[in-house]
Write a structure and sequence with these properties.
mainly beta, BH3618-like, seven-stranded antiparallel beta sheet, 6% helix
Length: 107
C-alpha cells in the first residue's frame, strides 16, 4: 500500500490534493464510520468505505499536516467520494503527520 495518494479533480486534472489512507496511521487516529453512516453514503457497510486525510505540505518548514477534522470517504468500486466534518473536539485541521504515524517496528 502506498502511503500517499492524490485526490484529483474530475473537472480540472491540474487540481490535486495529497492524502494518506487512515489505515496506515495509529489506531486512535483513525476515524470510525458507523454502518448507518456508510449506508447513507450508498455503501453496504463500513468495509466498503476507505477513509483518507488530506495533507498540507509547508515547503518553508518541511512539515506535513493532516486534516483530521474533515476526512475524505471514498466508496470502493466507484469514483464517489465525500468529505465529512467530524464534531470531535480532539481533532484538528492541521495535525502534524508525525503525531499520527505509528512507531517503527523494533524501535
Amino acid at each position: 500500500m502506498r502511503p500517499f495518494l492524490w485526490l484529483r479533480s474530475q473537472d480540472d486534472a491540474e487540481v490535486a490534493l495529497p492524502m494518506i489512507d487512515c489505515q496506515l496511521l495509529r489506531r486512535e487516529a483513525q476515524p470510525e464510520l458507523t454502518p448507518a453512516a456508510a449506508k447513507l453514503l450508498g455503501a453496504e457497510g463500513p468495509e466498503e468505505v476507505s477513509l483518507f486525510f488530506i495533507l498540507k505540505v509547508d515547503p518553508a518548514s518541511g512539515t506535513i499536516t493532516a486534516n483530521t477534522k474533515a476526512p475524505v470517504l471514498i466508496i470502493s468500486g466507484s469514483s464517489l467520494g465525500y468529505q465529512i466534518f467530524l464534531e470531535r473536539q480532539d481533532l484538528k485541521v492541521d495535525e502534524p503527520l508525525i503525531n499520527l504515524v505509528p512507531p517503527a517496528e523494533g524501535g
